[in-house]
Amino acid sequence: MYRHHNWQGALLDYPVSKVVCVGSNYAMHIREMGSVTPEEPVLFIKPETSLCDLGQPLALPQGMGEVHHEVELAVLIGSTLKQATEEHVRQAIAGYGVALDLTLRELQGKLKKAGRPWEKAKGFDNACPISGFIPAAEFHGDPQNTPLSLTVNGDVRQQGTTADMIHPILPLIAYISRFFTLRAGDVVLTGTPEGVGALHSGDELAIGFDHRELTTRVL
C-alpha cells in the first residue's frame, strides 16, 4: 500500500488522500492536444487508490487502449487550506516531488467528445505514480522555475520547466481551495509540458526533476 515518503525513502507522517490535478496548464501541451486555452484552471481529482511509488515498476491497465505519460510537478499539502490566500498556500506546502499523470488517452477522447467526466481515463488504480517528496524547507531551487523531463528508452519525450505554467503554483492552489478543501496529505499535480505519448511493456523510464533523476520501468 502506498505511503507518502521523502526523496530518500523515509516515511512521512501525512495521511494518503486525494490528488487534485490541473489540465491544460502548459501552452505547448494544449497545442499538441488540439485544445483551447481555458479561461480558468481545469480541475479533476484522482482517488487515493491511484497513488503508487514511482520508483517501483509500473503496472499498466490491460485491454483499455493506450496509456500515455504526463510528467508533472507534485505538491504535498501539509495543512488545511480552504478559501486560502497565496501566502496561506505558501505556508501550507510541505514538499515537492514529481509524478506521472497516467492517462487512458483513447478513453479520455471518447469521454471528452461525449461531454462526460474524465475520471475513468485519469483515476484508475495506479494512475498516479509519484516520487518521494523534498521538504519545502530543503528545496533550494525555485519550484516555479524547475526543469521537468521524461526519457523513454533513452529518447527524450518531455522536457520543460515549471516557469511555463499558465497558472502558477501559489495562485493555482489558492484557486483549488475555493472549490475543494485541501487537507494535510493531499497532493496537487500542476500540469504537464508537451511531448506526451504512449507507454509499453518493457519501457525504461528516466524522470528528471530539479536536476535529480529517478528511474523506473513498465512491467
Automatic annotation (TrEMBL):
<dbReference type="GO" id="GO:0046872">
    <property type="term" value="F:metal ion binding"/>
</dbReference>
<dbReference type="InterPro" id="IPR036663">
    <property type="entry name" value="Fumarylacetoacetase_C_sf"/>
</dbReference>
<dbReference type="GO" id="GO:0018773">
    <property type="term" value="F:acetylpyruvate hydrolase activity"/>
</dbReference>
<feature type="domain" description="Fumarylacetoacetase-like C-terminal">
    <location>
        <begin position="18"/>
        <end position="210"/>
    </location>
</feature>
<dbReference type="Pfam" id="PF01557">
    <property type="entry name" value="FAA_hydrolase"/>
</dbReference>
<keyword id="KW-0479">Metal-binding</keyword>
<protein>
    <submittedName>
        <fullName>Fumarylacetoacetate hydrolase family protein</fullName>
    </submittedName>
</protein>
<dbReference type="InterPro" id="IPR011234">
    <property type="entry name" value="Fumarylacetoacetase-like_C"/>
</dbReference>
<keyword id="KW-0378">Hydrolase</keyword>
